[in-house]
Design goal:
The chain starts with a helix and ends with a strand. The chain has nine helices and 13 strands. Helix 1 runs parallel beside helix 2 and helix 3 runs parallel beside helix 4. A six-stranded antiparallel beta sheet has the order 6-7-8-13-10-11, with helices on one face. It folds into two domains: 144 residues, TIM Barrel (Alpha-Beta Barrel); 189 residues, TIM Barrel (Alpha-Beta Barrel). It is globular and about 60 Å long. With 334 residues, it is of the alpha/beta class. Helices cover 28% and strands 25% of the residues.
Length: 334
């Protein structure tokens, strides 16, 4: 939204959920009812860092969204990054590259080099596939290069396509680098999703991204039942270990990711038929663990939550519904 008052509510959401950052999207230079400096001051009060959207153009695109014209030329770009550092901005989302021509490939590197000098994190959208650049530029947090859930707002084919596609991209696109899928949409956009709520929740673990851009509205998260809401407060964006447990592209995928001593297990199903999983927990260390397990409820847009105590010798038996999913937060018992 290009409205100061509405954007404040997103900052409030980030503070409530314990999320580090809030994105101020396109056209923040012409927002209504306030300015970017008002939002910066408000975010500082709430302890939330801000990320700002930029148009990468330049003559290489004809997209009119603002701000544009600040990323192409080195002196202009460095002036802008220096300004952002003074403002306390944490990162930028730069969009609409729309080409893999040599001059655009060089532009990516130029942006990353200059952003590093001013300690600005970077997320590329409308961009090329990841190419290992994050090893040279660790402040490159993620990139799009995928059909994400923003497509529910403009592509009538996307809801049907997403069913299998959501279980393919963990094996393909996300393998080569962080993927800003703009995931976890519970409420409907212009074209309603066919996936279950548990399927949407599981995307927060199955899809790896240095920044997770949760794509739904403020109320969609605030009105969640306590267990899935708690899960989204706890789920990390960076991981210490990842294990592929089982799956097949286009059908289903089960992953386990570790942060510290805690494990997050998640499954996505792209199949119409229900599936029963028997997940081997041999990746756990010795000792007893407490697991909060969130699965499909009695209807696709409901959840079922159970709690179990388990060890590495146990299995996690889970029933997955039509185009469903599940998550489990597994913590050592003290």
């Amino acid at each position: 939204p290009q409205d100061h008052d509405k954007l404040r509510r997103w900052i409030d959401l980030a503070a409530e959920m314990g999320w580090e950052y809030s994105l101020i999207d396109a056209n923040w230079t012409i927002m209504k009812n306030g300015t970017i400096h008002d939002l910066i001051a408000y975010a500082n009060e709430k302890g939330v860092g801000l990320l700002l959207w930029y148009n990468s153009g330049g003559p290489h695109n004809q997209v009119t969204e603002k701000p544009r014209g600040t990323m192409l030329l080195r002196d202009v770009r460095r002036f802008e990054f220096e300004l952002l550092k003074k403002w306390g901005i944490k990162g930028v989302k730069i969009d609409f590259f729309q080409s893999d021509k040599q001059n655009i490939m060089q532009l990516y590197h130029d942006i990353l080099k200059d952003a590093a000098d001013f300690e600005i994190m970077v997320n590329f959208h409308g961009c090329t596939l990841p190419r290992g650049w994050h090893r040279t530029y660790p402040h490159m947090m993620t990139s799009e290069a995928v059909k994400g859930e923003e497509c529910y707002s403009f592509d009538k084919r996307y809801p049907q396509m997403a069913l299998a596609y959501n279980t393919i991209i963990p094996f393909t696109r996300n393998v080569v680098g962080s993927m800003d899928h703009t995931p976890v949409m519970f409420w409907d956009n212009r074209y309603p999703h066919l996936t279950s709520y548990a399927h949407e929740l599981a995307q927060s673990v199955v899809y790896e991204s240095g920044w997770i851009h949760f794509a739904d509205g403020v109320e969609a998260y605030l009105e969640l039942p306590e267990a899935p809401k708690r899960f989204l407060k706890d789920v990390p964006a960076a991981w210490d270990d990842t294990r592929f447990l089982e799956g097949y592209p286009g059908k289903y995928v089960v992953l386990a990711r570790r942060k510290g001593s805690q494990w997050f297990v998640a499954c996505l199903s792209g199949e119409e038929a229900p599936r029963t999983l028997k997940v081997d927990l041999g990746f756990l260390d010795a000792g007893r663990y407490e697991a909060t397990i969130i699965t499909d409820g009695s209807a696709p847009r409901t959840f079922k939550t159970t709690n179990r105590t388990m060890t590495a010798s146990d299995r996690l038996d889970i029933s997955i519904g039509r185009y469903g999913g599940c998550v489990a937060h597994v913590r050592p018992l003290r």
